[in-house]
Backbone:
């Protein structure tokens, strides 16, 4: 049996602020909004926001959904692997220039269990977004 992660959903209380973060960071990695739903009613009696955006590759595979909701996802850690160190640096520069909180500037993580080059940010709800490059010859972290 083979199992693959299909997608991740992040619920955002402040949808527009969160979308700005994900648009900027994911856009650098070639993950763009391929599905975009917004509240078509515009009704003053409508107290909630109906909004969702699905991010995917140009091939159309959706890997992340950002949806509006009153109970935001918090404490999540989304790690995105890239193939070149320049992409790690590029995402960091975009985040810094956009005012996205940077938790960790690009650096090597050389612990025996990590062995990668990466950078980390937070979205408006405090979820951690990490962009990393596994170093050649490194193994994936062992399960605890």
Residues:
């Amino acid at each position: 049996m083979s199992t693959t992660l299909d997608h991740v959903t992040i619920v955002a209380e402040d949808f527009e602020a969160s979308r700005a973060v994900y648009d900027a960071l994911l856009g650098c990695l070639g993950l763009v909004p391929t599905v975009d739903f917004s509240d078509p009613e515009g009704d003053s009696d409508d107290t909630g926001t109906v909004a969702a955006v699905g991010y995917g590759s140009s091939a159309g595979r959706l890997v992340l959904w950002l949806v509006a909701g009153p109970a935001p996802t918090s404490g999540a850690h989304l790690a995105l692997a890239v193939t070149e160190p320049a992409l790690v640096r590029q995402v960091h520069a975009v985040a810094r220039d956009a005012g996205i909180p940077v938790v960790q500037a690009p650096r090597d993580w050389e612990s025996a269990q990590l062995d990668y080059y990466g950078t980390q940010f937070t979205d408006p709800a405090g979820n951690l977004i990490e962009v990393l490059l596994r170093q050649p010859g490194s193994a994936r972290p062992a399960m605890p």
